Amino acid sequence: MNPEQAPPTSVPPNPPADPTGDGAGLSSKVASPRVAGRRWALVPLAGLLAGAMAWLIGEVTSETFRPVMRRVETMAGPLLVPEIASKRRTDTGNAALVYGGLGMSLGLALGLTGGLLRGSRRDAVRAGLIGALAGATIPAALAMIAVPFHLEYLRDLDPTDANLVVPLLFHAAVWAGVGLAGGLALGVGLGGRGSLVKSIVGGGLGALLGTGLFEIVAAIAIPRGNSASPLSDASAVRLVACLAVAVGVAAIAAASVGSGRRAKSVTAGDVKVL
User: Fold this and answer.
1) What does the domain layout of the chain look like in residue ranges?
2) Alpha-carbon torsion (26, 32, 35, 37), positive or negative
């Protein structure tokens, strides 16, 4: 057979670099579903570590601002009591610092994790910085707005009232900022508009889930921890808050993005391209 008559050699087409079409680096890698599941499990783990780190930061910053004290004469002798206006300002500032630290830790951790899952160190650093900045500012700004109103509610509250609805709404309003910042960081790290939207929505929902979990656990396990206050005096209550919110945000954000990627995955023969 002459070379001119040789049948053409069939060349298999190259697999699409991004079958999901959302620009994320995870979709360009070949992996089994089990391996992919292990990768997504890194996101809640990062949330757990971020929550622990945020608690440690909060233990240092929870009493950064101190109220102005005034001397009051009583029958039992002179006492030093905080001025009401000064106490309101210091409680607001301390809560903003602590919850800003929670958002910063979670945003940094999820941004780095998303970029590393994508396979890009540069994207990991960029997403981590964006997440840290957003996490430090959004929850702190929400706390500055919400804490004064919540303190007014607590001042008029009957001590025998065990209503958890208002504290739940207050914590949800502030911690939603933590969830949005964490979801933003994860979405930026993973890349793609679809991943970004899903992770932000998932982060917000995860914050609400973590808030509800915190209220239940704190009320049952630590009933005297004053969990209804903007920033509890009990270290154990602050730990539960950081872990519940951080893990809730990370888990739901990862589940939101991961479910969409599995739905868009394509199968080439016996090899599944994620």
Assistant:
1) 25-263
2) positive
